[in-house]
Design goal:
alpha/beta, TIM Barrel, eight-stranded parallel barrel, globular
């Protein structure tokens, strides 16, 4: 299906690991399980190490056919030739970022539990609107909870933008047990950190998430 600007499916978000090779192996495992996109989210690294890791994961994602996004740093995304960038409330405004990166790079935005914020961002040709935390999250423990209903509202806003439309991404504490309900509520993509990379078998976990999307499509 080509009705989305951002790929449907499992959207892996990197954990704060200091071992680049371990992370690379984990990304490859997730890709074998069907992960469609990856976001590099490393808050504690030095700029030099973040760039080196971004280059390594960019190449890996190209090799395995996974979209590669950079969190926060649109300049780094441009410099290394990433597929896109994700920005949040504390980063540069989406309007500024879209002007800076041009029309071709993907742009995703955090909308928390705020459909009005999503509506505002959609005016700047964003490729997805992300809502969360859907559940308790170790990555963002202070994030306000987002009800499942916000995904349905986000889907309605997204569909008003024509085709291909921006995707609706859900993030925050999502595990296999919740995947089906979140997809059914309106999520096109599930952004997952610990629920993917902290599991004993990353490939099998990714496969289970991917199966949840396949099951949802067969029911529609």
């Amino acid at each position: 299906m080509n009705d989305l600007r951002f790929p449907r499916g499992l959207y892996g978000v990197t954990p704060e690991w200091a071992d680049a090779d371990k992370l690379d192996h984990a990304v490859r495992a997730a890709a074998r399980g069907g992960m469609t996109a990856l976001q590099l989210r490393i808050k504690t690294a030095t700029p030099a190490w973040r760039k080196a890791l971004a280059l390594q994961l960019r190449d890996t994602c190209r090799e395995v056919g996974v979209i590669f996004m950079v969190n926060d740093d649109w300049r780094l995304a441009l410099e290394i030739g990433a597929d896109g960038v994700h920005v949040g409330r504390e980063d540069d405004a989406p309007a500024l970022v879209r002007r800076a990166i041009g029309p071709d790079l993907l742009l995703g935005v955090s909308c928390y539990a705020d459909p009005a914020l999503a509506s505002k961002h959609l005016a700047h040709h964003v490729d997805y609107i992300a809502f969360g935390a859907m559940f308790a999250s170790q990555t963002k423990p202070l994030a306000p909870p987002a009800p499942l209903s916000v995904l349905e509202t986000g889907r309605t806003l997204s569909q008003s933008m024509g085709t291909p439309r921006p995707a609706v991404v859900a993030i925050g504490g999502i595990r296999i047990a919740q995947a089906a309900s979140v997809i059914q509520a309106g999520a096109d993509s599930l952004a997952v950190v610990g629920g993917l990379f902290a599991t004993p078998d990353i490939e099998e976990t990714a496969r289970a998430f991917s199966a949840a999307f396949q099951d949802a499509q067969t029911k529609t």
